[in-house]
Amino acid sequence: MLSSVLEKSTCKNCRFCCEFEKADEWETPIINEHLANLLKQKGVKVKKQNNNYTFDLEFKENEVKKCPFLSENGCGLDDENKPFDCKIWPLRIMKKQDKIYLTLAKTCPAFEKDDKRIIDLSLNLFETIKLYAKNNKGAIKEYSPDYKIIKEMEL
User: Fold this and answer.
1) In Å, how far are 24, 30, 60, 88, 155 from 130, measured between CA atoms?
2) C-alpha–C-alpha distance, residues 76 and 49, integer Å
3) What single string gives the DSSP state of each residue in 26-43?
4) 8 within 8 A of 75, measured Cβ to Cβ
5) Which residues are paired to 92 by β-bridges?
6) Would you place residue 99 in the very low, low, confident or very high pLDDT band (cuts 50, 70, 90)?
7) Hey, where are the domains in the chain?
8) What is the mean pLDDT of residues 51-67?
9) Where are the alpha helices (DSSP H) in the chain?
10) Cα separation of 130 and 153, whole Å?
11) Phi–psi pair at 127, nearest 5 degrees
12) Given this model, what pLDDT does residue 9 score?
C-alpha cells in the first residue's frame, strides 16, 4: 500500500518492523484465520483474542524474535496474505483517551525525519484504513509516544 513512498528493498534490508523485543510484543500484527492455521501447522503458537489472531513469540529475557513469516528475502507473504498492519507500516491505528487516530511511527528508519510524502499518502489511504479499523477493532492499538498523530478517525 505504501510502495509509492517506501521501496520494498528498503524494508527488506532493514527488517526493523519484523523483529520484536518483549516490550514490542503489542506491535505483533493481527493475522487472519488462514495465516493462523498455517502457523499452527508449522508449530508456531497462535493467540486468539476476541475475533483476532496473532502469533505468540514466547519471549525469554532480552530476546529479539523475528516474525515467523520473515525469510532471508524479506517477508515470505505475498501482498494478498500480508497482514493489514504490515501493509500500512509505519502507519498505525491507535487509541488515545477514547479517540482513534491514524499515526506514524517515529522509529521507522525510512522516515526518521518528518516526511511529507508518507503523511500525504496516508491521507490518501485514510478512508481504506478507517474502514479496516471500523471492521477490525482489535487492530486498534493503545497510543504510544513513539508515534506521531496524523489525523483523528471517527469510527
Assistant:
1) 24, 16, 35, 12, 7
2) 24
3) GGPPPB-HHHHHHHHHTT
4) no
5) 103
6) very high
7) 8-153
8) 86
9) 8-14, 33-41, 84-88, 116-124, 126-135
10) 7
11) -65, -40
12) 72
